[in-house]
Amino acid sequence: MKTMTRRKFNTLAGLGAASMLVPPALMGQGKPRVVIIGGGAGGATVARYLAKDAKGAIDVTLIENSRQYTTCFFSNLYVGDVRNFESITHRYDTLAAMDGLTVIHDMATQIDRDAKTVSVAGGASVPYDRLVVSPGIDMIFDSVPGYSAEAADIAPHAWQGGPQTELLKAKLDTLENGQNIVMVAPPNPYRCPPGPYERVSMMAHMLKTKGFTDSTITILDTKPKFSKQGLFVEGWEENYPGMIEWIPPEIHGGILGVDAIAGTVETDFDTFEGSLLNIIPAQKAGVIAADAGLADDSGFCPIVAESMRSTMDDSIFVIGDASIAGAMPKSGYSANSQAKVAALNIRGDLTDSRVFKAKYANTCWSLISPENGVKVGAQYEAGEDGTIVSTSSFVSQTGESAELRSATYDESVGWYDSITADMFG
Amino acid sequence: MTFIKQHTKARIQQRVVTRLWFAVTICIATGVYAGSDTKGVKINNVELQKTALQQKQAASTIESVDINEIVRILALSDDIEFGEYLAGECTACHLPVAASDSVVPVIHGVDPTYLVQALLEYRAGIRSNVSMAQVAKGLDDEEVAALVKFLTTYEK
Hints:
- The structure holds 2 protein chains of 2 kinds.
- Chain A has 11 helices and 24 strands.
- Chain A is α/β, with parallel strands linked by helices.
- Chain A folds into 2 domains: 28-136 and 286-424, FAD/NAD(P)-binding domain; 141-282, FAD/NAD(P)-binding domain (3-Layer(bba) Sandwich), CATH 3.50.50.
- In chain A, helix 2 (41-54) crosses helix 11.
- Chain B has one domain: Cytochrome c-like domain (Cytochrome Bc1 Complex, Chain D, domain 2, Orthogonal Bundle).
- The longest helix of chain B has 30 residues, at 6-35.
- Classes of the chains: A alpha/beta, B mainly alpha.
- The A-B interface holds A 49, 53, 333, 336-337, 340, 344, 354, 356, 359, 361, 363, 371, 375, 377-379, 391-394, 403, 406-407, 410-411, 413-415, 417-419, 421-422 and B 46, 49-50, 53, 81-82, 84-86, 88-89, 91-95, 99-100, 102-104, 129-131, 133-135, 137-138.
């Protein structure tokens, strides 16, 4: 056996390093493989765009435990009887039929970043060359003392689309006149900044429609102000006078605890009672991301602004609510936008396709009362400070005509049809 | 650098006017047709107001954007691959094929001069929609050309 010379060792080491830069397909390992954890707004979009644009050059596997996806966006419209549940629920058939895309309905349990595999509950281990982590959010239940996953079966957060949404709606529908609603609104950062206030608007609409003039909605907020506040307050005063009370921390002095069974929320100022408690706690990235070491102390995952690549691992991209996306709010629209940038960069990594400068966008529409929609939106790009920054923005104004508000709402309906087709096919 | 002859410019201009006439007529026809409730869509005053708004917008475009500007911009890029990436911003709201009575129009497979004109009108505030104004201002001329080239060549 020849001895290993230093020159030979350096050559071998260099070849080894160089092989990292060669697309796997060229190394004779077959097609490059992308695995996506999470089939929601972000994950479904990445899956679809990779399969569509790679034209068979990449093997894409989407891991999603549920066989259907109920969007959190527009779920408030279901709460307000403006949409039905089926109309906000989508299936994976069209995605699964795409060439190069496999959908696995199982729970992703663990990421092995060294071996580059994802384990699923059913026992299989799925290898990847590139991984997209799009798990959405998980609740920090004890951010509201006394709250828990069990308590959420009685006092739903309904901040993940699906059974929680139906539970909230069912409880709302069984309220009687004189029974009250108490909401605890979450601290920043959280999914869908205007969401809690659109929900309150839709719940107020339901109470008003039923003639429940003795029922009130109290919002105990963990923040001193909220998204589109002027617009909501104007709308509440016009449409639901006397029905809604918003109490910020400076008034209530802090939320001390919730008793889901008793139906009470205790604050430093007073104890509030409701027949329906909607407790929306603080949030963090889906646990699989944090377990894999992809999150920082904020509980969310830092990314490279120009690509959505994880700063913790070059082979992994984190998109959607789980990511720290700078000025972009956590929303389905943002997740879809980020997914396209991620897909573009993944294709650039794995094939010889072109990568363009990242462009992101978001718009959040909120329905205050039927045909009365408002919106806030912006465009974004990678800023010089390394975060995603806003380059322009717009927001609806108070005092707008009913015609404009109606057009804004109609626009959101068109958006919903289009973006869900963009995600699920 | 493309040299556009005078008679070609006139042909493009005539096509734009014809398309606008068509668009206005369709809007009126849709307004009448919708009133007959054949699609089972709930009709109220708001629907008719929106149709009137669309007509007003369509009518106001006739003397708006300079045709030379449209021609100049279209010549700036043929990069359909880049245009496809840019179109990712559009597909959040614009379904490639109209599947419902959405107020958001179809822009895939549409006449390129009309698309450029519409974007320029959003930039100039001749058409009013804050979302589209932001989109139009966020695209430079070369991006407009690339995007429009992709959209017009799109086949379902």
